[in-house]
Amino acid sequence: MKTIVLSKFQTVRSQITSAKILHIAEILFIVFPLLFLGLLGLVSWHSNADIMEPVRLNPVYALYFILFLSFFFCAFIVKNMKKSLANKQSQDLLKIATLVLILTQLFAMNLICGWLLLWFAKKEYGMDVFRISWKGLKQAPQKWLLLVSGYTLFISLFVCIIRFSL
After folding, report:
1. Fewer CB within 10 A of the terminal residue: the chain, N end or C end?
2. Rounded to an integer, what distance in angstroms lies between the CA atom of residue 122 and that of residue 126?
3. What is the DSSP string of 110-146?
4. Mean pLDDT across the stretch 8-20?
5. Membrane-spanning regions, if any (predicted)?
6. Which SS3 state, helix, strand or coil, does residue 108 take?
């Protein structure tokens, strides 16, 4: 019985592709901010206030509001990573964007998306994810992806530092 379950698990696991992992991460990056906005709506409805009232009054809600709005940028990055992965463009740029997004999710303590991105990096690159050709990066067509990735990393680091100092 145990071997049947394990063999079934292995077949399902082998059928999951890197594109599917990125697609699930993209969906979660869109759903999580919407859930937070729903929470803000419920809190404000319960207190008969404006939807932004909890954000103005509570610094923790303000931090999470900033953090969850940056998740839309993470979804945008993952969407462009899927396109670049399908076109086989600039793997070095994808490696850096993946590592930056993993750090972003660890700082944000979003372990679900962090685990999905880590699974993608392991499945797609293995230990070669840390081997980056800087010469190939200079010729990459989508250098702006690094700028957006850096922005999300800065926001999550900022929120992490302030959250632990409160």
Report:
1. N
2. 4
3. -HHHHHHHHHHHHHHTGGGGG---HHHHHT-S-THHH
4. 74
5. 21-41, 61-78, 99-121, 144-164
6. coil
